[in-house]
Design a protein that fits this description.
The chain is an alpha/beta fold. The protein contains nine helices and 20 strands. Strands 4-1-5-7-10-11-14-15 form an eight-stranded mixed sheet, sandwiched between helices. The protein is globular, with a radius of gyration of 21 Å.
């Protein structure tokens, strides 16, 4: 069985020009084989389900991720893999969230989209869709080749919680600075089996986690950041955690007022996570005195995680646990390949 379910949520990939009005409109995914005739060459069933209404990815909220998880769970026994068509703006957030919400996943969940509508000349949507479906259906010795949440874009398959969108115009829209591609497409699909996560024990039932808590913020550190601004962020009502986007390997200002503001927040029970602003590399708060100052006041390292993965992981952990110490302890666990602690 390698039948595939394509879930169209919205986004550029599913749009085409109305020949009468010239306006972009979503095409009917119930007729996907007519819209994309090359799919008829696959020797397996491709079923589709579309969100109604369609969701612009800029409007994605956690309840959208819950809906996706439930669609996958409800159809898990019927299909060998799933392809999610999604707008690019928040695809990295959705991929990160699903990687935590789908526990014991043993089948491919491949997100893809496009920079140009699938019906336009030079579109990247056709290749992305066809390759994503082929990857989702690929098996070796009766097992899926990529049993995890991933993103396919412009000839490369990435782990979903390792990517960041870094271009609004180029076809190669996503970047995975700290983890290699899981596969690359050319004449053949070459799977990087050493980078793919496989279950230690096959056959565990899929579990979905739908309790998420969004009491999380982001504070990007920049030269000239003011104390009133920092305090307004860190004292926000009902806030549980803040991702600090710091310089380099986890560095930040050492001004006494800056450290005192963070220390006061940590003492109130706020969870502070250190993520680098750099596209590649890892946080090491013991490398420089500035990072060590943050560690001493209770800031915890995000290592080489993306901001998107850090946000999603905090949503997930805070949704499951009320005690901040439990959350900090579980933060040190690699749940779905989102981090390298080395």
């Amino acid at each position: 069985m390698n039948n595939i379910l394509v879930i169209y949520t919205g986004g550029t990939i599913g749009m085409k020009h109305n020949p009468e009005t010239g306006v972009l409109e979503p095409f009917n995914f119930d007729q996907i084989r007519e819209e994309v005739p090359v799919l008829k060459k696959f020797g397996f069933t491709i079923d589709t389900v579309s969100f109604d209404p369609l969701i612009d990815s800029s409007d994605v909220q956690p309840d959208f991720w819950v809906k996706l998880c439930r669609i996958i769970a409800d159809n898990y026994g019927k299909y060998a893999g799933f392809v999610i068509l999604h707008g690019t703006d928040t695809m990295s957030y959705t991929a990160s969230a699903l990687s935590f919400m789908l526990e014991n996943l043993e089948k491919p969940v491949v997100l893809t989209g496009s920079q140009l509508p699938i019906g336009m000349i030079r579109t990247d949507g056709m290749e992305n869709l066809v390759s994503a479906i082929e990857i989702a259906a690929s098996q070796h010795d009766g097992r899926p080749c990529v049993p995890e949440v991933c993103v396919f874009f412009e000839s490369k398959l990435f782990r979903g919680n390792r990517i960041t969108k870094d271009s609004a115009e180029q076809f190669r829209a996503f970047h995975s600075g700290n983890y290699p591609p899981l596969a690359e497409t050319g004449i053949h699909i070459k799977f990087n089996t050493g980078a793919i996560h496989y279950p230690e024990q096959w056959g565990k039932p899929l579990q979905i986690h739908t309790q998420l808590d969004t009491a999380v913020g982001i504070l990007k550190i920049f030269p000239g950041i003011s104390r009133p601004f920092m305090e307004s962020v860190l004292q926000a009502d009902k806030l549980r955690a803040v991702v600090l986007e710091t310089y380099g390997s986890g560095n930040a200002p050492t001004a006494p007022w800056f450290l005192d503001t963070l220390k006061a927040a940590a003492q109130r029970g706020l969870i502070l996570v250190n993520i680098t602003q750099c596209r590649t590399g890892s946080v090491n708060m013991e490398e420089y005195a500035t990072g060590l100052s943050l560690k001493k006041i209770g800031v915890i390292s995000g290592y080489d995680m993306t901001t998107e993965a850090a946000i999603a992981k905090l949503f997930f952990l805070i949704g499951q646990h009320k005690d901040s110490q439990d959350i900090k302890r579980l933060w040190q666990k690699n749940i779905s390949g989102e981090v390298n602690f080395g």
